[in-house]
Protein 1
Amino acid sequence: MNINVPNVLPPTSTASQTPRESITQFTAQLLRDVDATMSHGGGDLQYLRQLDADTEHLVNTAFQLRRRRNACAPFLRLPQELLEKIIMTVAMSGWQPSASLRIGWIMITHVCHELRMVALQLQKLWADNAFYLQAYWRGCQETLSRAGGIPLSIAIRDAGDSTRSNVSAILKLFKENLVSARSVVIDEEYEHNTSYNNLWPYQPSHIGGRTLPLLETLHIRLMRPRHHGSTILQDAMCPAMITPNLRSLCLENIYVPFSPKTLTSLTLSIAPGHEHEIQYVRAIIDLRFLDVLRHCDQLQELVLNRAIPDPQSIEVPEFGIPTLKCLRVTDTFEKALALLDILLLPPSAVRNLTIEESSRSVDTSQLFRHLGDTGKAISAVEISSQFSTVLFRFYEKPDPLPVQDVTKPSIHLRDYTMISVVSFTRLAPDSRDLLLVKFTQECATGMTLRSTHTLHIETADEFSAEQWALMLEPFASVQDLKVDVPTYARDIWMRRINQDSVVLALLSAPPILPLLGQLSLAELRFDHEFTASRIVDMLRSRQHHKMALKRFRVGMISFACRELGSAAEWAEGRGHFLEGLAEHGTHGEGFVAEPDETTEDPEVRRAREEREKRREELVRHVEAGTMNAELVLSMFDAGVDLGNNFMCIQ
């Protein structure tokens, strides 16, 4: 049986009713009408159609109300130009709301209709992210259509299998739009097996001579270069691309014919591996290397990573790049030295040299001598020795130099301007300490650092007094010396690095570092041969030679055994000890004893003893050959106890 319930018309609003009251009354009556119809069997088809129409009308009205409500928000009432700048700022910030969403700005289009319309009409936003949906070919097409005629920023990055399914279609789309590109970044993480062989779809002969009038940035990094069958000479002699606006070029494991005349930044990089293909790229760069550098009329930054030819092939008269502001080199000692022999650098240019696989037979003073034209300006040197690397940083003094107060810490190196870096990498761990002594001596003699007043050395190695004297003696103008320990040595290795040899070196005759006024050491350890009296002897000796130390800071004092002293005893006598330093004209600072059982909290001591007992247990398991015991021990030392259930007896 069909029951028809008459449609309820909206109540007629009276003069005393507001629109909101009328709407409330109408919707309440509509709901009552539906309830009444349901109670009599649900209504006929015509009624249901009318109800669907009413529902759709209300939904559309609510949508329009929300849109108008958003338009009333103060933020959305800003001029469209400001909204566009805000969206572009968010896009350029690289904000990522989650790891899976590489471009966070896309979320702006989900906020409201007004912001979505502003973003959709902002062509530069889409032009700057033309290939961000590279896993979806049609998504790239839609992005390109929204970019309109704005110059494109194209970035094709290998993010694994998800980006490979449509790689051929994406590269075809890339080739069609290359002429409209302002910036191109090709970043290949893995080898590709496509019709193009890799993510750069051009052979030198195919791109040479082509006009790309808008291109300003071209960065290409390939995992494995491809030899396309043409001869090396043919590829090297290909005409350069016509790129009147190209400013930044970065090529790794690839050669693209280019003109260096307009470049302000050039990076040539050859990564190790795939030696057969790498030799093809290296051979072309060798042929073009000198010609490229000689025609860098506007170059400000030059980066060469294993791209310098053999020294014999670049034995040519000196030439310079007057506009150069920064040189970064990573290569062998011989190749880096050969480049510095022929390339004249402006004195103000920052040098950043990474020397790979140095040996004790190498005379690094030749290398440092090339940095000598900045030697007069260098007022601070930082030397760091970590793992298989020895690093030298050279700083220019602040202008003006702050007035020093011997009762306060010295100027932090972040207040200086770094002007040169030399790093020696891939050193044999068993010879690193000897190489540090050698390199430091040759640095000071090669650069003639007469104006250096600050020297910071950070090392986890222990040296004899004679070795410290060899390292420090050439730095005759140093006034501030700091010897520190790397964080990893203290926090990970739990090693205590004794620096008493520095004190003994300063006690040597004749005295070294005649201008030294401030000394800072990380730790001193008192044993049967080195006690507090040796510190006093050093200060007395320097005062006698009119080289009094104005400020002496030691981070921590420790004792080799209980009979030599304890933390509690040192705490009681520390004040008297510092007064003794002051008698020799030295302001003492720090000299805090390492906590031991005499000052340790009972709960802390109990926890420490339990930890030591647990570690001894794990060591016994390792010695007994228990399966996984070494892993459990290493994790325990890192602060995680996996328990005994992780181990099984073999």
Note: The longest helix spans residues 45-71.
Protein 2
Amino acid sequence: MLYTHAKKTSEELFSNDYDESLTGGAVDRNWLAILTERLRETELLKRHEQREILNRREEISKRLKSKTEETSVYSKEEGEIGDIEHAENIDGKHDENLFDKQWSKYSNHRRCNENKTHDDNSRLNIDNIHIISTLKSRDKKSLPINNDIYTEDNNKDDQLSNRRQANIIKQKETAHNKPPQVLLKIRERKRKMCHAPFFADIDKRVFVRINIGQNGDSPVYRIGKILDIVETTKVYQLGNIRTNKELRLKYGSNESIFRLEYVSDSEINDKEFKRWRETLIKQGISLPTIHDIENKQKAIQKYTNYSLNEKDIDQMVEEKQRFRKTPLTHELETERNKKRSESISVISTVSGQSKMGEIPRIVHFITGQGDSSNEQLKLYGPILPGVKLKQAREFELINYLCLLAARYILKPHKIYVHYYKEPKSYWWTKAKNDSDLKLTLRKTRQITSIYGHKLYHHAHRGDIMRLEVLLKYGGIYLDLDVLALNSFDSLLKNKLQKQTILGYENENYNAVCNAVILSIPRSQFLRRLYESYQSLNATCWACHSVMLTGYLATIYSQETLVLPSVAFYEPSYLNIEELYYFDTYDFRKNYASHLWNSFIGDEFLKNLTLDYILYPKQLTTLIKMIRHSIGIKKLQKINKDYKRNQILKIE
């Protein structure tokens, strides 16, 4: 698409003509003065980020233009790369981006293959999806501007000039050419970790931007180095918690104590940095070096996957109790102790059996999340091409068999089933009472929305619940139509030290399904995925759970391992006959197999019986898989119990 917007400078684009302190005229300064500290910091941070983006874009555009004029090379669309991106963001209109194109192709691909099973009249169009523009603008990492990228280099060996070598050596020795943003710790992180046992270890020797007061209507900030965390006699509110912890800061040779609430959420600007640097130089204090920063980063990294033990939890609970305004009632105390015991049970199980970095050997299933009414689903629910979505069916035989397969093949320390509304069926009762399964049931809150977006279908509600469960406990999440086939031991050892392990549903479209997820507790990748639901499109079936997951996994590949589709998602729904009609598929390379209940459950799984598995007229891959995972003897016993129950019902 050819963009024809006129070029504008950063000054013209940056509204209100803000000065170096990011404030405008008298009206703007008065408005900022009446805001709370948090709101003012948030607004100034937005302005700072906007200015940085515009300045960087303008600089890149100028360099590209200069380079293009020298080489007489222009883009096919008679414009420059920088101008196209520039114009697109000025107007706010986004043409179909790479993500949208991939999903459009993928959804069309699905519809074409679903013609084998579904009537053409039931197809619905979901080609136009634009759900990640906010996420892309927030998470997109800006490239550093380096003069050497855009200058000619006539040396064939591409050797560094003496000047560049000197600059590199200088950068390694000191870090005082720009603000030490790497060591900057913002207030929100401090609030979350305030009661953690490692809070002091992480924060010492970190630089913060601190509000030291007002100069007229303008707040005054300084850069301070945290020397220690101290406890005082004054208790104050910090977000939704109460604490008496304060920071002992050093600015130059001066030391003072400040509350955590005075730490700024904004980055250090150039003016503040220059003042801080000059102060240190005048007082003969050494500046921080790159080596100091790297050492601190290593110290912080040590606590990334920290597992809380029982002593840590006792300490945190006791500390929070000290600062409560009112004592807990007996009922609340009982409920809190129950939740705490549950957490300790999981943590001790994990820490007692897993080494650092390994994925906990616990399995999670989710059921009973409920749906909106059929009328609401029809009007507002997600659109699955070629399939009319209905409310969730009762807990069925295939769900029970998937639980058994997880127990026999994966051999977990615990199997959790998380539910809001407990199912009512013969197979659910059978699963609860099965001595082999030993299920741990956990009632959860009902999830009906996220970040203000309503969730109408149980599958979308389950998408959120699985992320919350894995963030808290870690382990293996499986959909109730995923049949475990071979041991996950090699994945649980997590030799590559990844935070999350997933599998491709379709590698050609970068589609990464969430029916199987392995994760450490508090995975940063799953946190990113959870926060991405701020841009949820609730009418799209798999935009977040499949396509956006793949998009994020590509960006944050250092945090994730995405396995080939054969790991969990073969036979594919595109070759569904290999699963339900033929018996030629070799599943020895599968860790598990997704049975695609949402697509073909009504046709194949709803009326599945044990007689069909034990005495089939035609052997299929599904039957072979079930026999492999559970065993003929166990299946015969289950069938015998079921028929006895049916006879008792008749009598």
Note: The chain has four domains: 1-97, 181-301, 305-353, 356-650.
